[in-house]
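Narrative summary of target 7.
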Amino acid sequence: MSAAHARFVVFVRAQQARLFALVTLLLTVVCNPPLAHAGDIEDFQAARALYDAHDWPRAIAAFEALVGGETPTLESQPLVLESRKYLAAAYVFVGREGAASDQIERLLLAEPTYELDPTEFPNEVVQLFDRVRQRLAERRETQAERARLGAEVERLTAENAAMRRELEGERTVEVPRSQWLVQIPFGVGQFENGEEGLGWFFAGTELLATAAFVTSMILYQAYVNEMHDLEMFGRDLGHIDQVNMALRILNVVNWSSAGLLAAFALGGVIQANVRFSPTRIVHVPGRVSVELGPSFVGLTGSF
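Modeled conformation, tokenized:
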């Protein structure tokens, strides 16, 4: 095959591709809403004729009249896409790559899957089209990543707010009880078990019994000393009888108070051990921490 024949074949194939593209466009415009007005088709064909004649300035002016503004004058979306494609190519031919990129970007934003026929346009147009497509893809990935990060920030913010509300609100804390404290009388075991009423009862009765025991012991000793003096230096039988009566009364009070003290102390310890629970539930507002040690249990918090 000669070189001339080869160039002729390439030319024929290019013309066939252009004819096929034109027929496809016309079928698309006719078959897909919104329907194009007859004037729109004529305007597009006139601009396309100038493009095919390589009259780039007039082709640019014609296509700009159709899609150059913010809102295209054409009502058919397929015609708008085709006009942007040819306007972008014409811009490339006159060295206005920035304007061409803008038209390609608008085309791809309206139809992301649009494909450019590489046999219809030179490499510089195809390469620019691919660069703009890649830039838009990267932009979409960046926007998707920002949206993902924004959603993650919102999720973490919501979790942090929920944790803050939980920490600053009333909390239920399980606090261990001391087995040693329940062995102590005077209501200590009852207070450790959380039974404050019984704690005050045992504390009051045991303190009263202790006070009675100590007072009776002191008075008893005083009367014993007085009786010793009477036996040594005096013989007032009537006074001796009174001191003996006081000693007998104080002896009864002393033993009775000692018995009561022992009974209440033992009863309180037994009751505290029976009702003992290893832990207790405490409702505490604010931030709370429990400190445990070998001989202490502590609660700290902000209220």
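The CA atoms of residues 4 and 139 lie 46 Å apart.
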